[in-house]
Every structure is written in C-alpha cells, then in structure tokens.
C-alpha cells in the first residue's frame, strides 16, 4: 500500500462556488473536480476516452488546506450583447469612450473573493501503483502538461512546497487524536477503507455540500477546447470540516499529524 502526498503553495487562489455570481465566493480548498482537472493537465490527457483518463477516475483522493487571509477584488466582465454595447457607447458603431478606443460590448462589475498564501495538501491512492508513479514523475518534470499548472483560475499557478513523497503503511497510523488540526478538510460520504482502517462519515462534523467530481466537455472531440462548456456527471456528498475533529479514529499521516480522508468515487 502506497499513498502519494503532494504539498502545494499558491500565492493566491479562487475556487469558485458555482452558484455565486455578482459576488463570487470561494471554497476554502479546491473541490475534487478542480484537483482532477489539475491532474489531467499535469499528465497531458487529451482524450477523455483514453485509458489514462479511465485509470485516473479510479484514483482515491484526499484534500486538505489552509490560507493566511482572504481579500475581495473588483473585476469587470465583458457583456457582448448589442444592447449592452449601446448602453455603454450610446451608438452601435462607436467604440470611443473618454478619448480611448475600447473593446466592443458593455461591462458588468463583479466582486471576487481571493485566498492569500494558500497551502493545499493532496493525498492520492490507486490500486495500480503505476498511476501514482506517473503522477509523481510528471510533478517532478511536468513536460507533458497541457498548459501552465494551476489550481482554480488559470492565473492561480502552483508551486510544489516540498518534493512529493510516497507514504507506506509504516508512515501511517490509525488512532483517535482529538484536536483542531488547523486545516480545512473535505470528508466524503464514501471514504475508501483499507482492510484495517474504517472511518464512519456520520461521526464526523462539517457543513454538507454536494461537490462535483468528474465532468465532460461538450463537443470536445470536435473542438479540442479544454475551456469549453462542462457538464458535471458525478457529484459526491461531502462535509467541509474546519479542522476540529473529536471522538473518531482517523487514518493519520504520522509526519504531518494530519487526517487522510480518501474519497472513493466509483
């Protein structure tokens, strides 16, 4: 049994809560779909029907994280409706405003919440260790990546805080350790259990979310546009825990003294 641990640092990040608009709120840690998208980018998977993609979907994933502070920024979104252009420039053929030529369309003011100095810890398990090895090798040398490695928005670049590490059974323990761990955790309803480790979802605290796991990009084989419209095809009922865990036996990373909640998405 091997578990791959990856520690990521981001100067800034935004993991959008999808049903927020005028003010775009962020989850404190990335949802499963965001991390799977990161791994698809990392490995360089173009084809969603490929064996690499199917094997990646069998990955068991645990996500924890924390951030130093949160700020809110004002941004402008472009509105390409003709009526929005006319409202802004007063005439369909005009693109001058304040003495400067601008893009056509109108503008909509948006507020977006930004996390600062973010640390994300990802644990991964796969029954086929070669899948973990492929992720490990690409993390060390991301020569197959499809684009700049990021978590969240395209501008939310990542830095490996430490070299990825494989954990063996001797690096793990299964015991009760009551404390506030100082990290946020996703706790999935279906927690992957090894023979000797079983964790009861119902005994753990947290806010309930139904967060996305896997998605399909519409018309991808015609356009090969990774930023096309996505349809989420798998969700996981999950608790967002703020770090305080009591009265429960946990699978623990001995070195970091952090719980591991591996989601089983099959």
Structural class designation: alpha+beta
Total count of strands: 16
Q: What does the average pLDDT come to?
A: 90
- Quick one: overall form? globular
What can be said about the biggest beta sheet?
A: 9 strands, mixed
Distance between the termini: 19 Å
User: How large is the share of residues in beta strands?
Assistant: 35-45%
* Share of residues in helices: 10-25%
Q: Count up the helices.
A: 5
Low-confidence stretches: none
What oligomeric state do the depicted chains represent? single chain
Structural Rg: 21 Å
Keywords:
alpha+beta; 266 residues; 16 strands; three-stranded antiparallel sheet; 16% helix; nine-stranded mixed sheet
Overview in brief:
With 266 residues, this protein is of the alpha+beta class.
What does this structure look like?
With 266 residues, the chain is an alpha+beta fold. Helices cover 16% and strands 40% of the residues. It is built from five helices and 16 strands. Strands 1, 2, 3, 6, 7, 8, 11, 12 and 13 form a nine-stranded mixed beta sheet that branches.
